[in-house]
Amino acid sequence: MRTTLNLDDTLYRRAKIKAAETGRTVSDLVAEGLNLLLAGNPRQTKAPRRVPLPLIVGGRPARPGKGMTPERTAEILSAQETSWARSSV
Question: Which of 15-32 are b and which e, b meaning 16 or more Cβ less than 10 Å from the residue's Cβ?
Answer without folding.
Answer: beeebeeeeeebeebeee
